[in-house]
Structure formats: structure tokens, C-alpha cells
């Protein structure tokens, strides 16, 4: 019961308090028109940290350049001290999307969260043997989500993303993605 309450509280926080930009992907690919300033604002990190983490001597960046958005183990100890350390792991999974309004669907997750009442919630269905229910998970192209559901077809390294719009769920299709699971 306590785990369900914690999961529901986390879902509410994520659905109302966080957006996709709150937790960044681990690496950003520079696009035309980007600058360190724009990237730092988008991912809520300082320009000096971006320069330090990427060993940049100037503000110059190039299209298609990969920019680290967090301190790595090889970064200096001063940058590690300025950012809280989070424990996480990467998993490559097959992903699909679902809606809460399909025929026979109740709209309520296996943890008791009502997706129909919270259509903007970022919830994924997982195999709890691979990703524990209640885990924070960053999915590229979807954002930060909570592992708040499990489905009978979700076995092994598969996830199913909740998307309230049927057309957007179909647009997601089936993709292989590397997700970041926070412990």
C-alpha cells in the first residue's frame, strides 16, 4: 500500500511539476542556430559547466557536435561537487505507445493512477523485473516519466509510453530507444 501511495504521489509531481526539459538527455547534438547559451538555458546548466564538461576553450560549437549535458567520471572533481550525483543505468529497449481510451481499457494503471484524469502525465508501462515500478525513467523523444504501469504484453526489455492522443501514439510507432533509469 505504501509503495502505491509513493508511486501515485510521484506521478502527480511528474505530471504537474516537471516538463521534458527538466531532465536532460545525457548528450545533445548541436543543430543549426544553437549556441552554448541556448543549450544551457534549455537544459538548466551553466555555460561554464558545459565548457568544462566538454573540454571547450571557447564558446564556439559546430553543427552535429555532441555536447555532454552532465559531468562524466572523467570531468574534474570541482564539476562533480557542484552537481548532485544520481545513480542511473542505461537500457536499450523496444518502445511502443498506448492511450487510456482504447476499447476495454479502464484508464487506470496497475499502480492505481487514473490516466483519464491526468492526460498530460508521463507514465510508462514496464516489466517490473527489468524496471521497478515507481522508477524515474528518461525516454529520448518523450521526456522524464515514471514507471507506473505494467502490461501483459510488456515482457523483458520493452516499454509502452502513455500518450493521451491516439494519433500521437500511432505517430510514435515502434522504436528502439536507449533509456536512462534512475535508481
TrEMBL record:
<dbReference type="InterPro" id="IPR010611">
    <property type="entry name" value="3D_dom"/>
</dbReference>
<dbReference type="Pfam" id="PF06725">
    <property type="entry name" value="3D"/>
</dbReference>
<dbReference type="InterPro" id="IPR051933">
    <property type="entry name" value="Resuscitation_pf_RpfB"/>
</dbReference>
<feature type="domain" description="LysM">
    <location>
        <begin position="26"/>
        <end position="69"/>
    </location>
</feature>
<dbReference type="InterPro" id="IPR018392">
    <property type="entry name" value="LysM"/>
</dbReference>
<dbReference type="InterPro" id="IPR036908">
    <property type="entry name" value="RlpA-like_sf"/>
</dbReference>
<protein>
    <submittedName>
        <fullName>3D domain-containing protein</fullName>
    </submittedName>
</protein>
<dbReference type="InterPro" id="IPR036779">
    <property type="entry name" value="LysM_dom_sf"/>
</dbReference>
<feature type="signal peptide">
    <location>
        <begin position="1"/>
        <end position="24"/>
    </location>
</feature>
<dbReference type="Pfam" id="PF01476">
    <property type="entry name" value="LysM"/>
</dbReference>
<keyword id="KW-0732">Signal</keyword>
